[in-house]
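Researcher: Following up on the earlier apo prediction. This time include the ligand. It's adenosine-5'-triphosphate, with the SMILES given after the sequence.
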Amino acid sequence: MSLPSSAPILIEDLTVAYGDQPVLDGLTLGVGAGRITALLGGNGAGKSTTLSTLLGFTRARSGRVAVCGIDPGAAPDAARRHIAYLPENVALYAHLSAVENADYLLALSDERHGRAAIVDALRAAGLQERAWDQRLAGFSKGMRQKVAIAVALLRAVPVLLLDEPTSGLDPRATADFNGLLSAVRERGTAVLMVTHDLLSAADVADEIAVLEAGRVAHRVAACGPERFDVRALHARFQVAA
Ligand SMILES: Nc1ncnc2c1ncn2[C@@H]1O[C@H](COP(=O)(O)OP(=O)(O)OP(=O)(O)O)[C@@H](O)[C@H]1O
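Model: Understood. Below is the ligand-bound prediction.
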């Protein structure tokens, strides 16, 4: 498969192993600007390892990985400057407010945005005004996700990596989150979303890639003649998992 070399996320023929245990074995995957790809696969298929390799935390044994043209294995800090990453359990500070958390996380990325820009982003992320200055202790997972996505919105980076962002969210919060992702896509961000939530993936992704035996075994498009049928994919995915 040939991928445009300008794609912000580019993985070609990637092999990753932990000791003598191969996890990724010839994985090829690209996400272009303004596109959302959902990465599915059974437990242990290597989805988080794929994200970790893009972030430069896990080294490729062979193959090519590039984030905006930068090899995260060789230059992890430079690659991470182009990435906003939402882990499954967002690490935020319970004793700080939503605004303070955003301010602090942005400072870690060497970014300063005033309060006005931060509350604009929190509003865009759907966090209610009364929660802006509340301490995070007591926030639901959906509220914490909104703070994290507000930070990602403010960073305006070309690549967004998400690890199971809708796990534990109720259908309303999931729909809100998917709406936000669509807004992020409109800005031209390349989004790679690891998920077990096929319905959510079908809702928001342009493409679904299913990881099996260390490589992409199925890719299905969201529109055009190859538009995916969620039920058929669900049946196929259950067999794969
Ligand atoms: N740091 C590590 N050291 C050794 N083995 C690891 C490490 N991280 C992951 N693995 C193993 O690599 C395989 C792939 O793990 P990974 O977390 O990437 O899968 P996943 O598709 O994200 O799974 P899940 O859906 O359960 O989150 C698993 O067998 C896991 O046990």
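Model: The chain has a mean pLDDT of 88.
Researcher: Noted. I'll compare it with the apo version next.
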